[in-house]
């Protein structure tokens, strides 16, 4: 299989130059090991995986001897299966000033991140990896990052081509797991079915102690039905036959697994009566489509839920972009008691950029009427955007742009 260059590569190598250990976490099968093995090609870096029962037992029983046998620089795959290594990694980090000695991968888990962070504070950088973005699948490396500047976006558009709804919904329906990119619909369905049984259910039982596996399967499907909506744990739990308390705990589990993310509402002391309830999204829209039994791209594209999937897709693409980028941003949505909503508020360098997401190809000025509610916030309000299926990048008014969604 041809290697697909990942946007995280730049940030990973940059952090490896600064930290003694770098760990990439993320959901199963998003390409963590593949990327690190690719980056390690041509250099003298030992590779070991804790999926190997013998190596895992060796690492767990005698970490010191393990690293005498497999000295750094080293790439350790699935390190969460041998957390006993962390204390020895700490000692080895303290014995050398060399950077990038330890490259680690691990399935996303709060337990793993806490254990690694506690043991390797100041020595370890943790980076999150998602499944393939639409840009990565197309092999595009833009000259500049996504911004809310018309000039920057116009330069970006030269590399990105045209915005096609069929291509967009192919990306939404298929998702970004590397292994599924060349599969037909039948193969895709079987892959995701195996993904649930082989990885998610096993992790739910082994790592999180979930005994009600049938209830957990139903809960996965219920989450797909609620994607893009304000989360109501009682309603979500009722859809799967479990309590609201259990639903809240299982959402946390799926967040830890890298399956879901919650978009928190924007909060400001100056703006009153704001909602405090987050919205639920899937990290990979292809998996969400599978769980809701959307068996083809066209059925999904023409279905009643297509707008929710399009919103999930755009927000997930932006989450990827900013996770791999240079600047720290805050991503939130806005909703108040008067039901005024903004799909996404991007806060970067103290500036708020309101974003509306529409599947339409021809948004009008009513699309941005809620943007004015941010004027009461003690922040500078920057250029806004309507991200949509338009094929033209252009101003909508003096404070918002029409941005074709393929440019993200």
In short:
The protein has 408 residues and is α/β, with parallel strands linked by helices. 41% of the residues lie in helices and 18% in strands.
Q: What does it look like?
A:
With 408 residues, this protein is α/β, with parallel strands linked by helices. The chain folds into two domains: 8-129, P-loop containing nucleotide triphosphate hydrolases (Rossmann fold, 3-Layer(aba) Sandwich); 134-182 and 262-407, no CATH class. Helix content is 41%, strand content 18%. It contains 16 helices and 14 strands. The strands form three sheets. Strands 8, 9, 10, 11, 12, 13 and 14 form a seven-stranded mixed sheet that branches. It is globular and about 65 Å long.
Can you tag this structure with a few keywords?
alpha/beta; 16 helices; seven-stranded mixed β-sheet; 408 residues; 18% strand; 2 domains; 41% helix; single chain; Rossmann fold; five-stranded parallel β-sheet
Instruction: Please give the oligomerization state of what you see.
Output: single chain
Number of domains: 2
Instruction: Give the integer mean of the pLDDT values.
Output: 93
Tell me the distance between the termini: 26 Å
Topology:
Blueprint: H1 8-16, E1 21-26, H2 32-40, E2 46-49, H3 53-61, H4 63-69, E3 74-77, H5 85-94, E4 102-107, H6 110-119, E5 124-129, H7 134-137, H8 150-160, H9 165-174, H10 185-206, H11 213-225, H12 233-240, H13 244-256, E6 260-263, E7 279-282, H14 285-291, H15 297-301, H16 306-324, E8 329-335, E9 341-348, E10 351-357, E11 380-381, E12 384-388, E13 394-397, E14 400-404
Parallel strand pairs: 1-4, 1-5, 2-3, 3-4, 10-11, 10-12, 12-14
Antiparallel strand pairs: 6-7, 8-9, 9-10, 13-14
